[in-house]
Amino acid sequence: MLCFGKKRSARDTDSRKLPPETSSPPPSHNAEKKGRSESVDKFLSSEQKKEEGKLKLLLLGTGESGKSTIFKQFRILYGTRKSDDDLRMYGVVVRSNVITAITKLGELTRELRWEHSLIEESDAADAAVPQDASGMSVKDAYDQIMGHLVDNNATHPLPEFTEEQLANDWVGTHPRAGAKTNSDAIRCLQLVDAIEVLWQSPTIQAVWRQRAAKNINDSHGCFLTDVKRIASPNFIPTEDDILKCRLRTTQVVVERYNIEGVDFEICDVGGQRTERRKWINCFNDVNAVIFVAAGSVL
After folding, report:
1. Deepest in the core among 120, 131, 232, 237, taking most CB within 10 A?
2. What mean pLDDT do residues 185-208 have?
3. CB burial of residue 231 (10 Å; 0-12, 13-18, 19+)
4. Could you say which DSSP state residue 282 is in?
5. Do residues 122 and 138 lie in contact, with contact meaning Cβ atoms separated by under 8 Å?
């Protein structure tokens, strides 16, 4: 005898196919999402108000007009204190500036045809500058600098600057300064005696007064006067050194300061012709443009 179960109705079949009823999220979950959303809205509103209250200044001018010097003055007055890493980088730049200045002075001496004056000085001083302890004549110093920095035909190699000496030098080298700047900084240490002797020469002082012809930075005379301090293993650049040193700006640099309760955003750009195409990208939302011109060319 066959037994048949109760026939299921279509209603029963359909009910098995239906997914279970989903419950609505608890009120606490909705309140948490709403709180997060309000926090984000409040943050965005706060940032928008800060942005609207900020003053954006753009520094423009030709190369070596002094834009970056003004920029560095803002940093000193309103920025944070320089880290040791920053100071080491500036130390490399200062030493490199010494080499740039003395190289241009040597080239200008040759262009002015005043080399014979250096020979006369050496003869009159009996082959030594009286106040110099190295016993090097002015002409010897000039020949050494020109041979190593200009003509590349020096007969005597520079004294080796060992890894141990570099390790004991507070400034040393710095990757942010670039290979050429680091190389020049080491040359400064190797040629310090020749630079000091040559800078004391009355002929070179006369050449210095013609420095505009070679576009030699006015402030670098202080570096040549203090070359012994700058080449010292314990040299740490001062704020004055940082202001006077010259490092070409090749990118847009932005700094933010709060001055008497007002937020400022200051942009420094390169002044060379090859850098000027970048200026257009900095004009958005600018409140003021400060155009800097060098007083020495006015």
Report:
1. 237
2. 95
3. buried
4. G
5. yes
